[in-house]
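Reminder: ligand-aware prediction takes two inputs, not one.
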Amino acid sequence: MQSCKRATELMSQQLDRELSGSEKLSLKMHLFMCRHCRKCDAQFKVLHRLASARSQVDKPDKD
Ligand SMILES: [Zn+2]
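Here is what comes back for the chain with zinc ion:
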């Protein structure tokens, strides 16, 4: 069983790159069993959405 630390790393990495099949599966399994990490995962998704929304706003509008 992977640790919460490893699960958190995968959550962070999946924002930057596509996880491999086994990485996705182990993260999914961990989230299924660990309430704490489910909460973290939800927060990661919110943060990522905010960050990408902001980078679109900050994009310089060249004319
Ligand atoms: Zn966990």
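Residues 4-56 form one domain. The two ends are 53 Å apart (CA to CA). We will return to this case in the review session.
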